[in-house]
Design goal:
Helix content is 35%, strand content 19%. It has 23 helices and 24 strands. Helix 3 packs across helix 5 and helix 5 crosses helix 7. InterPro entries: MULE_transposase_dom, Znf_CCHC, Znf_PMZ, Znf_SWIM.
Length: 668
């Protein structure tokens, strides 16, 4: 059997005149009687093409007056070989090789491309592009994709079909109407999983199209694939009722509520996969995190029977940035709303701009002594122990116990808001009077700061992740990572746009204190100790120790109005008396380490033992049937406090209006 040497042109492009340009060359030797599959495998081996992931397109030029001829089957190879025998010169009848991805998406156009077009093969996948075009020769990655696409097509065009023949190699559909000429045929390409449309007659000659469609049962797969873009953002609210309304107004399809609900669940399944399978992705995901962000601390803990228990992540961006923030760690917990529930534990601090820096995030099965102890153990591995470090929480008993074990010498403080909610629940009738007394006791100058932070609830970590807590664990962890990625670049740009010595928040506080200091009188006692007179009140300022008898200077590490009056009296700058954690330089260093995007999983070299690692869903309490709980149960006092309150436009007080106000006007 004789051999034929063939030159290959690859990595080129077809121009508008049907000529292959900017190509590279290679060569192969094949038998004269080679089949199409042998030719493909020979080319793939020579060019190192993975035919399980790529589709190879072969064309050649017969002469300059004809468009390129494509080899698609055994007959095409025989025609080429007979032509090649007439001129066996290596440079004659060169094969032009184009390589396409199996999962490439088809852009839907209105072009009237004919069946004999010389354009490239178009490959469709589901559910992202469930389209049937006007012309034949479309290629799909498998038979299931063809079936899903034709279902979508039938819903859009309101007709019903039935299967005439279905096998591993063919898929033949006809209309349910008698003697109707509508038909659809698709066959396998060379016994592979890829299917191509061979014949498609769109014209219906029956009169039953509209009548049969009314009785037709729309599948959730079809409608679910159509509404997938509505659920890409977890914050989007798109209900089953919205699906009913949009399908009727946009496509003329009338769905019941249950059909719309099933379509919504199918869309979630297409988009997020099976919640149980989400846990099996964690070993590979954590490996990619460690490779992408060297220095990060990620940890996955399982039970003896390979079930998920804990997951911990602290990215190196947060680890390096934490050194330039105040050593105050705020820990909190919130419940998850996915199929397998669970608890998310977080630790955060405040940067020089007064915004949140997320230090770590952790998913555990339950909130108990063991989970909090493990949380702080991993936190200590990542961040260690800093001087003057303290922990702030809601004083949960498990948190107190865990910190006493892992950080025995670290002071533990309570969140002012959580203490107040506990007081309010105990004294329901007199909490308005207790409100003023409580916050006055907790230092009145912190009330404005507290109210300001509470009003900006969009910056609250729980508020930001509220909708994401419904996601499966893999998607939840990736959502938080992308959130860190976005926050890091946004805050870095704001830091570069800050031209004051201090960050935005603390610079404003300093300006407010400077305004208050204008009317204060200062009397020197020693070089470092001064008495500041504010009307009949007297305060003592010690610049050597950065202290003031009002308590604000030493607690906030920012000069109070009395300290600023003293500094002005001594002609000294206030920059040396501000905490270094509040400066613009610290803000820039906090976010100097970017959170780079994760590489494509398919292009990551993950060790086999990581891929083989098994993580089963947790054995704990799975979400019960019925409408899931979205928010925690609130006390009567919390619900009542949200009712409309009358406030005065004159003094700003509550309980009366401007007409009945007897107080002095508030300062503007």
């Amino acid at each position: 059997m004789s051999k034929i040497a063939i030159m290959l042109q690859l990595n080129g492009n077809w121009d508008n005149y049907g000529r292959f340009r900017d190509f590279e060359v290679d060569a192969i030797v094949v038998d004269e009687n080679a089949s199409y599959s042998i030719l493909i495998s020979t080319i793939a081996e020579q060019l190192s093409i993975d035919t399980s992931e790529k589709i190879v397109e072969i064309k050649y030029m017969v002469n300059d007056n004809c468009p390129p001829m494509e080899i698609r089957n055994d007959m095409g190879v025989r025609v080429y070989m007979e032509t090649k025998k007439e001129n066996k010169n290596l440079g004659s009848y060169q094969l032009c090789i184009s390589v396409r991805d199996f999962n490439m998406k088809l852009a839907i156009t209105n072009d009237n491309t004919s069946a004999g077009s010389s354009g490239s093969i178009k490959l469709l996948d589901m559910p992202s592009s469930p389209a049937i075009e006007e012309y034949q020769r479309q290629v799909y990655q498998d038979k299931q994709t063809v079936a899903a696409a034709i279902k979508h097509f039938s819903v859009m065009h309101k007709f019903q079909f039935k299967v005439k023949r279905s096998s591993r190699r063919s898929y033949w559909l006809v209309c349910v109407g008698e003697n109707c000429k509508w038909h659809f045929k698709a066959t396998s390409i060379n016994d592979s999983a890829i299917f191509k449309i061979m014949s498609f007659n769109r014209q219906h000659t029956c009169c039953l199209m509209n009548e049969t469609f009314i009785q037709r049962k729309r599948t959730a797969d079809v409608v679910g694939s159509m509404v997938i873009p509505k659920y890409c953002d977890p914050k989007t609210v798109y209900t089953s009722k919205d699906i009913q309304t949009d399908m009727l107004s946009e496509h003329g399809v009338n769905l019941s509520y249950m059909q719309a609900w099933r379509a919504k669940e199918k869309a979630f399944q297409f988009l997020r996969g099976n919640p149980a399978d989400s846990y099996s992705k964690l070993p590979k995901y954590f490996y990619i995190l460690e490779e992408t962000y060297p220095g990060s601390v990620v940890k996955l803990k399982k039970t003896a029977d390979e079930c998920f228990l804990y997951a911990f992540a602290a990215l190196y961006t947060s680890i390096s940035g934490c050194q330039h923030c105040i050593p105050v760690v705020v820990v909190d917990e919130t419940f998850l709303k996915s199929a397998y529930r669970g608890i998310m534990l977080t630790a955060s601090t405040m940067d020089a701009a007064g915004t949140i820096l997320l230090l770590e995030y952790d998913v555990v099965d339950f909130e108990n002594d063991a989970s909090w102890k493990w949380f702080f153990e991993q936190f200590k591995k990542a961040y260690g122990e800093r001087p003057s470090m303290c922990v702030v929480s809601d004083r949960n008993a498990s948190i107190l116990k865990a910190t006493s074990i892992v950080y025995p010498g670290i002071p533990h403080y309570s969140c002012m808001w959580h203490i107040w909610t506990n007081i309010r629940s105990k004294f329901k009738k007199g909490h308005l009077q207790l409100h003023e007394l409580y916050f006055a006791t907790a230092r009145s100058y912190t009330l404005d700061e507290f109210n300001e932070r509470m009003s900006k609830i969009e910056e609250s970590l729980n508020a930001v992740t509220k909708d994401a807590r419904e996601l499966p664990i893999f998607d939840l962890l990736e959502y938080i990572r992308t959130l860190l990625e976005r926050w890091t670049i946004e805050k870095l740009l704001k830091a570069k746009g800050t031209f004051t010595f201090l960050g935005t928040k603390f610079n404003k506080e300093l300006d407010d204190n400077r305004t208050l200091s204008q009317k204060l009188r200062v009397r020197a006692s020693t070089d470092h100790i001064h008495t500041v007179l504010d009307g009949v009140k007297r305060y003592i300022v010690c610049l050597e120790n950065n202290k003031c008898s009002c308590g604000q200077f030493q607690l906030e590490e920012l000069p109070c109005a009395h300290a600023l009056a003293t500094l002005r009296h001594m002609n000294e700058t206030d920059e040396n008396y501000c905490s270094p954690y509040y400066t613009r330089e610290s803000l820039l260093r906090t976010y100097e380490m970017p959170v780079n995007p994760l590489p494509d999983e398919s292009k990551s070299n993950v060790p086999q033992h990581i891929l083989d690692e098994v993580v089963k869903p947790p054995t704990g309490d799975k979400r019960r049937p019925g409408r899931p709980q979205k928010e925690r149960y609130k006390t009567y006092d919390e619900i009542k406090s949200k009712k409309y309150k009358v406030s005065c436009g004159n003094c700003g007080g509550e309980g009366h209006n401007k007409r009945s106000c007897k107080n002095a006007p508030k300062k503007k």
